[in-house]
């Protein structure tokens, strides 16, 4: 995943597993091979313009005992600085990075100023206490408040209104969200973000961006939180805003099922301390990249303008739903 220009993120460190080489390979040096055709697999993303802070890929390698140190350094020597390999392990021929992945976690950075109105005046205090303390308290309240809309997405739901080309009732639209939560405040290059984490086995195209778009709409009072349930359960198309892509990136891939069945192929492990440190360093670079895009491109402000345009349709759909529900209740009472 290359770092892109424009409003999409994307430094992308990878964790690499390797299998024995096949005929369709091209030597980069005497020990490292790159695939020409279909020998290299990745975890696969949502194809949504999202970046990959942690991606897992598999491909053939010539030797079996070069996983750490020199092997990783030699692979990185052939990569641009915005793409890094942070570790490698032997996983065997049967491993497939995409199909064996049983849990993916993404993060979305919401600029705080989108959710938090500016304080009009500093606190008056003879002791020199400034408005930072009030801001910190408001951010804590914001983190508590955002839990409510986030929790509505947890569980198995039909996300037909959160993607394209799917209707209510289609099995492909049913996806399970394992967990959603607000992690912490991220500050980079003068921009403050709320870091939102969302985990599931797999996600649809646009799904996470529309989840975040609707969360922002709820937090800004465009629609009530119950609109989320309406969008998840309605058999009719429901308008849902799509948040910008450049604030979204993948951070974790889990292979618990494969690890349980093939512990012999997981002897190095993909989550040791050295690799975590490398991933955290790269994550800081990613945050700097996103903050720079937010300051220069203003993608979130464009989203808010689009949300303002979409708001009447959302309000109309919600009011129609409420009227139909009240009508059904009256018929039942009669």
CATH homologous superfamily heading of the largest domain: Pseudouridine synthase I, catalytic domain, C-terminal subdomain
The fold-level CATH name of the largest domain is: Alpha-Beta Plaits
Name of the level-1 CATH class of the largest domain:
Alpha Beta
Shape: globular
Count of structural domains: 2
Beta-strand content bin = 15-25%
Derived from helix and strand composition plus strand pairing, the structural class reads: alpha/beta
Annotation, overall tally of beta strands: 12
The parts where pLDDT drops under 50 for at least 5 residues are 1-40, 119-129, 330-334
Q: SSE layout and pairings?
A:
Elements: E1 14-19, E2 25-27, E3 33-35, E4 41-42, E5 51-52, E6 55-60, H1 70-76, E7 85-90, E8 103-111, H2 112-115, H3 132-151, E9 155-158, E10 174-188, E11 191-200, H4 207-219, H5 226-233, E12 248-254, H6 256-261, H7 273-297, H8 299-333
Helix pairs in contact: 3-4
Quick description:
With 334 residues, the chain is an alpha/beta fold. The chain is 35% helix and 22% strand.
Q: Care to describe what's here?
A:
It comes from Eutreptiella gymnastica. Residues 151-255 form the Pseudouridine synthase I TruA alpha/beta domain. This is tRNA pseudouridine synthase. Pfam families: PseudoU_synth_1. The protein is of the alpha/beta class. It is 35% helix and 22% strand. The chain contains 8 helices and 12 strands. It has a 6-stranded mixed beta sheet with strand order 5-12-8-11-10-9. A 4-stranded mixed beta sheet has the order 4-6-1-7. A two-stranded antiparallel ribbon has the order 2-3. The longest helix has 35 residues, at 299-333. It is globular and about 65 Å long.
């Amino acid at each position: 995943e290359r770092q892109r220009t424009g409003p999409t993120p994307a430094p992308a460190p990878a964790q690499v597993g390797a299998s024995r080489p096949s005929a369709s390979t091209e030597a980069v040096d005497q020990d490292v091979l790159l695939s020409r055709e279909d020998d290299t697999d990745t975890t696969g993303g949502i194809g949504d313009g999202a970046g990959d802070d942690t991606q897992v890929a598999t491909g053939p390698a010539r030797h079996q005992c070069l996983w750490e140190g020199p092997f990783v350094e030699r692979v990185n020597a052939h990569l641009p600085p915005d793409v890094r390999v942070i570790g490698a392990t032997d996983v065997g021929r049967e491993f497939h990075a995409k199909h064996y992945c049983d849990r993916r976690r993404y993060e979305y950075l919401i600029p705080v100023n989108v959710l938090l109105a500016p304080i009009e005046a500093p606190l008056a205090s003879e002791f020199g206490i400034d408005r930072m303390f009030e801001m910190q308290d408001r951010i804590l309240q914001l983190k508590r408040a955002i839990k409510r809309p986030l929790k509505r997405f947890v569980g198995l739901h039909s996300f037909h209104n959160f993607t394209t080309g799917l209707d209510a009732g289609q099995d492909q639209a049913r996806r399970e969200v394992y967990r959603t939560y607000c992690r912490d405040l991220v500050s980079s290059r003068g921009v403050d973000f709320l870091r939102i984490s969302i985990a599931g086995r797999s996600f649809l195209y646009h799904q996470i961006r529309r989840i975040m778009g609707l969360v922002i709409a709820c937090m800004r009072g465009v629609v009530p939180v119950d609109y989320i349930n309406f969008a998840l359960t309605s058999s009719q198309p429901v308008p849902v805003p799509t948040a910008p892509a450049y604030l979204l990136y993948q951070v974790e891939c889990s292979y618990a099922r494969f690890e349980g069945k093939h512990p012999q192929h997981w002897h190095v492990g993909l989550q040791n301390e050295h690799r975590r440190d490398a991933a955290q360093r790269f994550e800081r670079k990613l945050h700097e990249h996103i903050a720079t895009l937010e300051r220069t491109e203003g993608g979130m402000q464009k989203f808010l303008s689009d949300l303002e345009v979409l708001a009447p349709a959302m309000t109309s759909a919600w009011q129609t739903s409420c009227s139909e529900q009240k009508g059904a209740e009256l018929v039942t009472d009669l």
